[in-house]
Specification:
By secondary structure, this protein is mainly α. It has one domain (about 1-155, about 215-275). It has helices spanning about 1-20, 35-50, 50-60, 65-90, 95-100, 100-110, 115-130, 135-140, 160-170, 180-190, 190-205, 220-235, 255-265, 270-275; strands spanning about 145, 155. Strand 1 and strand 2 (about 155) form a beta hairpin. The longest helix is centred in the N-terminal third of the chain and has 25 residues, at about 65-90. The N and C termini lie far apart (about 55 Å). It comes from Laccaria amethystina LaAM-08-1. This is DUF6589 domain-containing protein.
C-alpha cells in the first residue's frame, strides 16, 4: 500500500508539473532555470495541493464546481502530509514529526479514530503546555524512533522495531529443543543483535545464499509514466466547470474538514477536557 501511494502521488505531481509548466514531456523541465522551477513548485502547491485550492473550488456555486479536480486536489494535499511523515520518520527528524501532530489530530477526529485523536490531544497538551523541557526532550529523543543501524536513514518507529525484535526472538533466532526454556530465551535474547551482526558479516564474507532482510523495490518508471500519461489525457488537473462525480463510492470524504468540525462544533475537545479534569477520589475503601 505504501508503495502504491508513492507511485500514484508521484504520477499526480508529475502531471501537475507538466500542466503548470505547459510542457508535453517531463524531461522538458530540464530547460527551466532553478528560479523558474521554484516558482512553478510554489504555484503547484498553491493551486493543486493546498486547502486554499480546495476552498476556492468549494466557494463556487454548486453547478460551477469541478468535483473531480477537487477530489484530486484533496488527494495531493493529504498525501503530502503522509509523505512528509514517512520521510521524517526514516531520517529521524522528530521536529517535523511534531509539526504534523495537529494534522494527524484533524485526520483522526474526522475519520472516526477517536482514541488516536485523544492520544494526539494528550501529546499536544503535554508538549505545548504541561511537560517541563527535560520531559519534552526525553519524549522526542527516546520515545518515538529507534535506529539499530547507525545510518542516517535507518530510523523506524518503536512499535515496528519491537515487532521485528519479536520476529527475531520467535522465528529468526529462536531457541529449539528441550533446552528452549523461558529462562534460556531470556538469557540469549540480549545477544540477538550480535548474532545478527555475525550472520550478516559471514554472509558478506563468504557470499553465501542469504535470506533478504527487506522487500525489494520494483522498477517504478513504467508504471509511473503510464499513470502520468493517463492523468494528462484525462485532464483531471484542469478546471472544468460543472464536472461531477456520479458514483457515490468514488467520492472521498474530506476528513480534515470533518475533523475540524468534530473538534470544534461537536465538542470533542470539550469532552476530552471534561474527562481529563474530572475530580476523582484518591482514597481506598476496602469495606
Amino acid at each position: 500500500l505504501d508503495e502504491a501511494i508513492k507511485h500514484v502521488s508521484e504520477a499526480h505531481f508529475r502531471a501537475c508539473w507538466m500542466e503548470t509548466a505547459s510542457v508535453k514531456t517531463f524531461s522538458e523541465l530540464k530547460k527551466k532555470s532553478p528560479q523558474d522551477l521554484k516558482t512553478l513548485a510554489g504555484e503547484i502547491l498553491r493551486k493543486h495541493a493546498s486547502r486554499e485550492a480546495i476552498h476556492k473550488i468549494e466557494s463556487l456555486p454548486d453547478d460551477k464546481q469541478d468535483h473531480i479536480l477537487k477530489q484530486w486536489t484533496m488527494w495531493n494535499t493529504d498525501v503530502l502530509a503522509y509523505l512528509e511523515l514517512r520521510d521524517a520518520i526514516k531520517i529521524g527528524d522528530v521536529g517535523r514529526m511534531e509539526d504534523l501532530v495537529p494534522t494527524l489530530l484533524f485526520r483522526f477526529a474526522g475519520g472516526g479514530n477517536s482514541k488516536y485523536a485523544i492520544e494526539m490531544l494528550e501529546l499536544l497538551q503535554g508538549l505545548r503546555k504541561e511537560w517541563p523541557v527535560e520531559i519534552k526532550n526525553f519524549i522526542r529523543e527516546w520515545c518515538w524512533l529507534m535506529n539499530r543501524t547507525g545510518k542516517r536513514d535507518g530510523f523506524l518507529p518503536f512499535d515496528l522495531g519491537q515487532e521485528e525484535n519479536i520476529a527475531d526472538i520467535k522465528v529468526n533466532y529462536r531457541s529449539m529443543g528441550p533446552g528452549a526454556t523461558m529462562d534460556y530465551i531470556q538469557k540469549v535474547s540480549p545477544a540477538i543483535p550480535t548474532l545478527r551482526g555475525v550472520q550478516r558479516h559471514m554472509e558478506d564474507q563468504f557470499k553465501s545464499l542469504t535470506r533478504g532482510a527487506r522487500h525489494g523495490v520494483p522498477q517504478k518508471e513504467d508504471d509511473v509514466g503510464k499513470l502520468t500519461a493517463q492523468y494528462m489525457k484525462s485532464g483531471i488537473h484542469k478546471f472544468v466547470a460543472g464536472r461531477k462525480i456520479h458514483n457515490s463510492p468514488d467520492k472521498a470524504p474530506d476528513f480534515l474538514t470533518m475533523g475540524a468540525i468534530n473538534l470544534e462544533k461537536l465538542g470533542t475537545i470539550d469532552k476530552w477536557f471534561t474527562q481529563r479534569t474530572h475530580a476523582r477520589a484518591m482514597g481506598e475503601n476496602w469495606d
